[in-house]
Amino acid sequence: xxxxxxxxxxxxxxxxxxxxxxxxxxxxxxxxxxxxxxxxxxxxxxxxxxxxxxxxxxxxxxxxxxxxxxxxxxxxxxxxxxxxxxxxxxxxxxxxxxxxxxxxxxxxxxxxxxxxxxxxxxxxxxxxxxxxxxxxxxxxxxxxxxxxxxxxxxxxxxxxxxxxxxxxxxxxxxxxxxxxxxxxxxxxxxxxxxxxxxxxxxxxxxxxxxxxxxxxxxxxxxxxxxxxxxxxxxxxxxxxxxxxxxxxxxxxxxxxxxxxxxxxxxxxxxxxxxxxxxxxxxxxxxxxxxxxxxxxxxxxxxxxxxxxxxxxxxxxxxxxxxx
Length: 323
Hints:
This protein is of the alpha/beta class and 323 residues long. A hairpin with a 2-residue loop joins strand 3 and strand 4 (182-191). The chain has a single domain (24-198, 208-224, 239-282), classed as Pyruvate Kinase, Chain: A, domain 1, CATH 3.40.1380. The two termini are 32 Å apart. 61% of the residues lie in helices and 11% in strands. It has a 4-stranded mixed beta sheet, with helices on both faces.
């Protein structure tokens, strides 16, 4: 059995660790709130752009763009993978890296060896360096500070390469933020883009009202999603005859790149919020485990102390009897 001094030292050590995890949980909670606000600020633009595209495409089914057209043969694939720059966020990074490796393995099995990864986050950059996969650039700062302009630059680079035939397919791998307690690992096709009216807006199912990860919150989110699905209506044309100025191709060339820019930026915001939510939950779990360990150590300390007192009393009583 450990001595009283050893138990006391262990209690002090666990207490110190608990203070750190508790502080990190509060910091992550604050950052999560800011990330949720960033998503909320982006939503009006996203909703309006999706509404315009849905209405336009529902009324003009013949509308097409080069970013919709699949290449006949897929030989070169790009993956945009989102991770964090730091650790202590549970399985956030490991899950992303597993899905990325799975995607790379699937393409290699199909004979596609020309792969390029755009690593948004240090963990992905380190992993592809080990795997010797070509990198599309350095985007470490973007993982810490989401920036719409830099996301638009990435989107522009990818779309131009796709239009020139240098890339045949692009996928996004990231955590889709649904709530503080639910981040869904997502592998989403970026190019060629799916412009069906059913697909546009399908990812807008976030609950940004709370940063508390509890079972009740999860149940509330599930019921809310079911209710929203029941109430969802099929988009109908606003007008049978749109007058398009200057022409249909020009309008599509303007709207579709904006949607692609938004997809890169939205995935980054989702990943950023998911990272902070995962870290908050991980630190809360660590704090709870520290509390349990402190209770066990305190009980062990009290038992050992009582046993020591009892032993001393027995020695005193035994000595008195002998005398």
